[in-house]
Structures are given as C-alpha cells and as structure tokens.
C-alpha cells in the first residue's frame, strides 16, 4: 500500500466562490470538523483583497476561531506582502503563493502579468523564509485557460521553476477550469518533471468535465502522491468562468482506496464534513 495524501481545500477553494456570505462561525465549524478527519494539511482561507473576493474578507476571524489540532498544518493563500503580513499575524502554519501559466488568467485573477505577479510574490517567499514559515506554490490553468485556450506545457514548467527558485517546498498544479484530459495532464507533467521531482508536485484538479479522477490516475502514473480536493466537491474560482468545484475529497479517497492506496482519512468524518459543506452552500 502506498501512502497518498489529500490536501483539503474545502474551506478556501471550496467556499471562495459562494454567493451567500457564509458566517465565519460556520466556516470555523467546518474547519474544526475537518481537523478530526486525519488531514495533515488544510487550506483554511485566503488573505486576498476583499474587493476581489468578498467571501474571504473574514480570514482573520476564521483563523482566530479555529481549534488547531496537533500535527495539522493550517494553510492560507497570500497574493502579496499585505496578505502575507496578515497571514503571519493570524499564525498561519504555512502560506501559499499563486501564479498563472497563462497571461489571460494572470490578468483576470491577479490584475498583473505573469512576470509582474512573480515579482510581487518574491518578497512574500523571502519574508516567509526569514520567518520560518513554509511556502507552497500554485500554478493555475496548467492545461487550459478560459481566456487564452490550451496552455503550452513549457509555460507551466517555467512558472513552476520560478516558484521553486523562490523556495516553494511543493508546487500544486491547478487545472483551474477542469478541462484537462489524461493526455494533456500527462504532457504537462512530462514538462514540469524536467524541473522538479514528483515528490515536490501536487495535482489540483477541478472536476468541471468529470475527468478529475482520470487525471489523478495519470498523475499517479507519473509519480505524484499529493492531490488537492474539497469535501462535497465544493468550489470554483471567481475569476475562471465556468470553473466547477475541486474534485470531491470523498470521491478521491474512495478512488484511491479502491486502487490500494492509503490516505489515512476517517471516511465517517469526511462524510459528515461533506454533508456540512453542502449545507453551507444551501444544498439539501
Ligand atoms: P489590485 O486591485 O491590482 O491591487 O489587486 P491593489 O494593490 O491596487 O489593491 C486594491 C485594494 O485591495 C486596496 O484597497 C488594497 O489595500 C487592497 P483600497 O486601498 O482600494 O481600499 N488589498 C488587500 N486587502 C487585503 N488583503 C490583501 C490585499 N491586497 C490588496 N492581501 C490583488 C491585486 C492581487 C490584491 C487582487 O487581484 C487579489 O486579491 N486577487 C486574488 C484573487 C483570488 O483570490 N482568486 C482566487 C484564488 S486563486 C485560485 O482559486 C486558484 C487555485 O485554487 C489553483 C487553481 O485552481 O488553479 C489556487
Ligand atoms: Mg483551485
């Protein structure tokens, strides 16, 4: 049995796109339940501009309210130094910086070119290193961009290498709009693996077209052992038209278990968290 880790994204990627402003207490309850499920890492919230993502405006309140379980890393997204300082004050266990493999999505999500966004992220990574806070990196639109079309694998490898050079301990590869196919994921990974070993990569696949599990299988075959997912299949990115949720944690865990991989998760707790996640978004 090989160990495969699921990095839980529900409270951040899952909820950031919800129209109803979810009270902080409900987000805290979800994180507290997830803390009992056996995850090593949970992405709790993001310290981004509240003008851009109003749902995450309560990031500090959520971070202050959660009950931290020993051995769990509570991660947050930080797009710039302002976000980093707030994340540090909130005692984030780790931070994540994010860049795009396409110019169109970079402009839509970060109001900057790829080069400008990397310049803005470098001081975040440097400050985190000085403070001893681990930094994870994301590359978005790794196979398909809603604005620019298919993404060349070499563009993904370039941005992944830039994030590695800044000191990211792991790079998560985002199929932001869930249009990747096993073949395009494989071609993308082939290029990225020229820059980084599989132990430093994670797959972050949205399930818009229902291919996320097949894309995970293609990634397992390339040696990846970490996948991002969200309980209840929550989510979508506000700046990626048509993006559906992250692949559901419960589906990934069951799929991995059937293939003989061990995630170390308590499926009873996961089922309760998935139900809670669905009720947060007003589903029956
Ligand atoms: P901007 O408008 O160019 O920046 O946005 P600005 O510096 O001019 O700031 C505008 C206002 O926001 C100012 O306020 C700033 O102070 C404030 P004002 O002076 O007008 O009152 N501000 C902030 N407030 C709180 N925290 C901050 C912060 N920064 C600025 N950190 C910016 C540039 C990067 C800030 C903006 O574009 C932004 O916040 N973007 C984030 C968008 C986002 O969160 N997208 C979703 C997450 S990424 C994702 O989902 C993909 C992923 O899941 C992987 C995948 O699926 O591919 C990770
Ligand atoms: Mg995402």
Write the layout of secondary structure elements.
Elements: E1 2-3, E2 5-8, H1 10-14, H2 24-34, E3 41-46, H3 59-65, E4 73-77, H4 81-89, E5 94-100, H5 103-110, H6 114-131, E6 135-140, E7 144-145, E8 149-150, H7 153-166, E9 170-175, H8 182-192, E10 201-205, H9 212-221, E11 226-229, H10 249-258, E12 261-262, H11 267-280
Parallel strand pairs: 1-12, 2-11, 3-4, 4-5, 5-6, 6-9, 9-10, 10-11
Antiparallel strand pairs: 7-8
Structural features:
single chain; 284 residues; alpha/beta; eight-stranded parallel beta sheet; two-stranded parallel sheet; 11 helices; globular; binds 3-hydroxy-3-methylglutaryl-coenzyme A; binds magnesium ion
Describe this structure in words.
It comes from Paracoccus simplex. Pfam families: HMGL-like. Keywords: Lyase, Metal-binding. The protein has 284 residues and is an alpha/beta fold. 41% of the residues lie in helices and 18% in strands. It is built from eleven helices and twelve strands. The strands form three sheets. The protein has an eight-stranded parallel beta sheet with strand order 2-11-10-9-6-5-4-3. It has a two-stranded parallel sheet with strand order 1-12. The radius of gyration is 17 Å and the shape is globular. The protein starts with a strand and ends with a helix. The mean pLDDT is 96. Bound molecules: 3-hydroxy-3-methylglutaryl-coenzyme A and magnesium ion. 3-hydroxy-3-methylglutaryl-coenzyme A (HMG) is lined by residues 13, 16, 46-53, 77, 79-80, 82-83, 98, 109-111, 138, 140, 174, 176, 204, 237, 239. Magnesium ion binds at residues 13, 174, 176, 204, 206, 237, 246.
């Amino acid at each position: 049995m090989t160990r495969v880790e699921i990095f839980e994204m529900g409270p951040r990627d899952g909820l950031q796109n919800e129209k109803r402003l979810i009270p902080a207490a409900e987000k805290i309850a979800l994180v507290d339940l997830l803390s009992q499920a056996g995850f090593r890492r949970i992405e709790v919230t993001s310290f981004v501009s509240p003008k851009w993502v109003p749902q995450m405006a309560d990031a500090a309140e959520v971070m202050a309210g959660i009950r931290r379980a020993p051995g769990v890393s509570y991660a947050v997204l930080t797009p710039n130094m302002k976000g980093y300082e707030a994340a540090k004050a909130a005692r984030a266990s780790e931070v994540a910086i994010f860049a795009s493999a396409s110019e169109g999505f970079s402009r839509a999500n970060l109001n900057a070119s790829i080069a400008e966004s990397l310049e803005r992220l470098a001081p975040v990574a440097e400050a985190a290193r000085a403070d001893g806070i681990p930094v994870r990196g994301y590359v978005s639109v790794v196979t398909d961009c809603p604005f620019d079309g298919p993404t060349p694998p070499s563009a993904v490898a370039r941005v992944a290498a830039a994030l590695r050079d800044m000191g990211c301990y792991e790079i998560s590869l985002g199929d932001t709009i869930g249009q990747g196919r096993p073949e395009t994921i494989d071609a993308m990974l082939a290029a990225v693996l020229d820059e980084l070993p599989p132990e430093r990569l994670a797959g972050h696949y949205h399930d818009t077209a229902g291919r996320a599990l097949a894309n995970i299988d293609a990634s397992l075959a390339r040696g990846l052992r970490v996948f991002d997912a969200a309980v209840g299949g929550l989510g979508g990115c506000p700046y990626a038209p048509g993006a559906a949720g992250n692949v559901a944690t419960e589906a990934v865990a069951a799929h991995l278990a059937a293939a003989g991989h061990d995630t170390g998760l308590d499926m009873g707790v996961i089922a309760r968290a998935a139900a809670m996640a669905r009720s947060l978004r007003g589903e029956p």
